[in-house]
Amino acid sequence: MRQSKLFGKTIREAPKDEVSANAIFLSRAGYIDKLIAGVYNYLPLGVKVLSKIQNIVREEMNKIDGQEIYLSALQHKELWEKTGRWQSMKEIMFQFEGRGNQEIGLGATHEEPITSMVKKRVSSYRDLPFYLYQIQDKFRNEPRAKSGLLRGREFNMKDLYSFCESQEDLNKFYDRAIKAYLTIFERCGLKAIVTEASGGDFSKEYSHEFQVLTKNGEDNIVICTKCDFAQNSEICKLKDGDECPKCKAKVKHEKSIEVGNIFKLGTKFSHDLGLKFKDKSGKEQEVIMGSYGIGPSRVMGSVAEVYHDEKGLIWPKSLSPFAIHLLLLSEDDKKKQIADKLYDDLIKQGIDILYDDREVSAGVKLNDADLIGVSLQLIIGDKTKDKVEYKIRAGNKKGEVDEKDIKKLL
Q1: pLDDT of residue 144
Q2: Residue 22 in contact with residue 302, Cβ under 8 Å?
């Protein structure tokens, strides 16, 4: 991609109404464009990163036998009244009247519609277990939408639902989901901490959140300095320096961002909506469910929040919008020919590359490259001879490389 043709220009100043690092840098670098509070358009760079996160999520969900579906965002009142959530979620669910005086809601979550759909297709224990997931936008009328992609009123979500015959089967899949989630976050460059949280209205057991430590996080968690104990501060009464209940080491409070959560729903929705199956003895039982959520857009915002410096974004290789950002910093025709040829050669090798061929100063190009944050920069300037200069954005490590060895840097 030639940068002269790229839609979405960088901007020098931070948007006046943005306060979070992820919103500031993603807006300045041309990844997102704010429409209203909590609602963002994704520009080409943003779509590339979001798609990479979605594909990582999709691959790991498929590995644990998830089957991808796609549910409607429009929900009718009658279904939600059966679970009592039409009224209880009124504060955050967008609700309105459609044609024919039908009361409609925009999907804030999808337990009701997926349970209703599954009810039509399950009758026997032989139909269980199975696991369905979707990647789709959700809508929530959040009262505090000031954290960029971390708390949106429209946001991208992967929600998976498990349907099991027994609590044992649910527990086994729940453990598989935890491992898959940790793999997803690791592949996205995030170190996630499995954190106990309230089971809420669904379960007397703990649910689990996946939290990433950062000084600008919205959440507060209590973690052990030695073992894997971690609890959301909403359920934990321990103070800094108290003993860990697992290993007796000291605990501390840390700021964090929640990037995923999982719940054992039990029979809450199958009971309310009549989702039953006949067991081996022919007796009717209620299907036991679980819910597993990751927000790809929230992951994108979290990575931007964690990985940046004063110059701009620093994408992990797995999420970088391009593998290489090639910068031509010379006005010499011969240097331009060298850069053009290198660009064409790398394209032929199947490498996704952004080529800054714009007629702007070298300083502007270097500043924009750091702001955009592609993981590897290649530089051809007046001092370039037989080798190509390179800069690895993470750590800003610099050096020279032969053209034939560029792939070793990827």
Answers
A1: 83
A2: yes
